[in-house]
Amino acid sequence: MNRKIFIINSSEIIRKGINAILRNYFNTEIILLEKKEELKGFCELTGQEIVIIYEYNATEKTANFQQIQKNNKVKWIAFLNDNEKPAEPRPFCKFYFTTKTQAPQLQKLVSRCWDKTQRKPKNTDSEELTTREKDVLKLVALGHSNKAIAEKLFISIHTVISHRKNITEKTGIKSISGLTVYAILNNLLDTETINPEDLI
Amino acid sequence: MEIFKKNDKLSYLIHRNYHLLPVLNRFGIKLGIKNKTVEDICRERKISTGFFLAIVNTYHNEEYFPREELLSFSPLEITHYLRKTHQYYFQHIVPKLDDLLAKLIASSHHDFKGLQMVDVFYKKYKKELNQHIDHEEERVFPYVINLVKNHKIDPKYTIRSFEQEHSNVDEKLNDLKNLIIKYISPDYDENICNDFLITLSLFEKDLEDHARIEDKILMPITIEIENKLGR
Ligand SMILES: [Fe+2]
Ligand SMILES: [Fe+2]
After folding, report:
1. Residue A56 above 90 pLDDT?
2. Are the Cβ atoms of B178 and A171 closer than 8 angstroms?
């Protein structure tokens, strides 16, 4: 899961200061914004783990960021002005810090927000195509439909689709003509009898 | 990642991300910009500052997409920008790729077959891209412009059909990149190959941005107008 940190603060000095503290600790993209409203520009984000460090303001009514909250895992950290009273509980936020907070504490605060169970899946699968996948690939390259491939190999269409998905994942190639080139380059097709230009 | 503001100097934008240069050109901006800010230049060139910033910022950061704001811009402004982008592809990028690929193939000593296959693949892709863009230039954009200017609905056409048939033209570019990066034997001039891959990657990114504006901005705006005209 991709991670992102947003730092929202009207003061450039504070924004850049927090950024400097977090940057040499987290290898995560950090986005600096002046106003909460600017979050609207990120409505397209999905499936990410996001920490939003915002400027707590008791008088300000909470803006609505459903879009970003709905499609991502969002944690909020409030930055309190010194003269602000310690935070009373607010809907999205358990965490806060002030200008008195030390850098390591702030780093800890952010790292507590990340979901530790989300380890990156290990890429254990071999890159090599299985014999069955090669059979499917050959037929794809020759221009057969999923249905025709299923009939020829005596397997279900569902299985064909899942083989095709694996082929694309392993090779990094999506289009049929791209897969055809791949098949020719790997000598899966006999180019003596077929003119490759007709296939690609 | 940062979001550019109207008071930023245009020269600053270029220093931060020189890939923005062709984007500026699409707005008719030429260099020699002194210390002018984004706002100055936009006023001078009669470009809407909001539109300029939205385009530049979405281009600068893939994840930034102020949809609500983008939806407020004029379809004429948007089609103009998209057309300039098409021109850039056909007058600059595609000829450059043609040239680099020809040089790359000429530089290869043994693995002729691999690069020949890549060449066939590329030519086919180019044909599809041509058809795709021709269709937009000749059918889709004129329809949108006519709709906005004359408030007339064409009984034989609706933008909704474009919504369905608008194909993904950047997918094959990624395939092309992978074929070269992963599967061709490295028997060619490396510097030419690097140039080719870099040009390809920039083109891919540009196309993604372009298609996103077509799909998520131009189409919904046009559908909205069609709805208002009682379609
Ligand atoms: Fe287009
Ligand atoms: Fe398009």
Report:
1. no
2. yes
